[in-house]
Amino acid sequence: MLSPKKPDNIIVLIADSLRYDSVHPTGAPVGLGYTAANGTRFTQARSGGCWTLPSTASLFTGLMPFEHGADTHSRGLRPGTPTLAGLLREQGYSTHQITANVATTEVFGLDEGFNEVRRIWQHVPAVHRKIHEIMVLVGKPRLRKKILTTDFVMGKLSEDFEASKVWLQSTVDDIFSHARRVLRDNTARGKGSFLFLNLMETHFPYHVGPTFDTTAEGLVGRLQEVVSLYHLVNQTWLTQEDNPIAAAQMQILRERQILAWQFVASRVDAFVKELHETGDNLVVFGADHGDCFGEQGWSYHFSNVADAGNRVPLYWLRPNGDGAGRVVDTPVSARDVFHGVLREVGHAHGQHHIVDEPERSLPVMQSCWYNNQGKTLQRYRYDQMAFVERDQRFLYRQGEWWTAPVSTVGPEAQFARMPGKSDPIEDVVVPERRAVFRQTLEGFKAFAAEHGG
């Protein structure tokens, strides 16, 4: 049931790129004692997109990437799209984004509806001033390309240099401090707050400590780890016949995210507890998307619809304690955070509640192929759509259907091609949901055809 009144404050806390199995390596959550005991846990939540821009835009709009337009192809939220921040602002909330990721800001239009976007890199001193500029030059061609085609080149380029600080130092405590300040100031003004917080510790390069460090032993091992991180973030494997990251190195990178989560887990849990116990606050904790370290043949978090890249942790803590300790195993889409939050405040735009009606959620995922400086090999130039139904994942790619079981603990099962005339929407989806699945597929196909995917 819905809360009897609007929450005093609404906080959506996102750990960027955090895989479900980094938090739940054996099924139970690591480091989330209070969060799990006092919230509803979703075990089968999937992000709408596979990297920060499309997946965050889906959280903000409740739409699929092909609907909101913020994706690898067009890279910008479609003008006029209603956003969670904008709709909550209409409800009287003061809306604030405190982020460690430049991709959630005005660069791609994800500032829409916020009274304030606080870029944490502008509020912390650089720990490694001399090398953070070098990292951004070699690290994010997709952002450089976007920035260099705008009318405000110098300003955005300069901001991107500053944003690279979050790759070299932890900012989780800074973000939490800023969030407390915003909540305190708005409370003093008699205003409720909507906060969206993005944490980058679990994102590349996966912070294993307060500042950037390697985990391998010996000078050679550390150098190999750094080189592997370079290849991972620059997606060089998309342009080469063989993946330049060896399997052993890929496992080291995989373990980096696990260590990164362990580094911040207790602080995240303590902060959730603080927020949840201070006033009648709604707190949502989760991830925007996951990350791939070789699963389904993918590396990093572009272009894939693997469970590694789309299955995400998701917890919902209501102010009245309803749903505490509940576990929802029904497959859901994380983009329905949008509808659930709006239902909590009684907004008509909220079509259903992810906690109360998980069966109405459509766990559909989409990815767009990444054009790596014009050099992406032809075999990777396709868009993908997938959905989860009856403990199976169904993947649509280039006119063919593939399937694999839902991943659990252990290695992810490979997709297998289904027979030529298979139609899982007709064969597997229950009749009352077929029309909306079919509509989603047709919308995706039209989008992919328009953009060469």
Your description of this structure?
With 453 residues, this protein is of the alpha/beta class. The chain has a single domain (9-360), classed as Alkaline Phosphatase, subunit A, CATH 3.40.720.10. 35% of the residues lie in helices and 17% in strands. Strands 1, 2, 3, 4, 5, 6, 9, 10 and 11 form a nine-stranded mixed sheet that branches. A five-stranded antiparallel sheet has the order 12-13-14-15-16, covered by helices on one side. Strands 7-8 form a two-stranded antiparallel sheet. The chain is globular and about 60 Å long. The termini are far apart. Residues 146-158 have low confidence and may be disordered.
The fold-level CATH name is Alkaline Phosphatase, subunit A
Rg over CA atoms, rounded to whole Å, is 21 Å
- Oligomeric form: single chain
Largest sheet: 9 strands, mixed
Query: Helical content, roughly?
Result: 25-40%
Give me the count of strands: 16
CATH homologous superfamily identity = Alkaline Phosphatase, subunit A
Strand content: 15-25%
**Spans of at least 5 consecutive residues with low confidence:** 146-158
What is the annotated CATH architecture?
3-Layer(aba) Sandwich
Q: How would you sum up the global shape?
A: globular
- Average pLDDT for all residues: 91
CATH class call: Alpha Beta
The number of helical elements comes to: 15
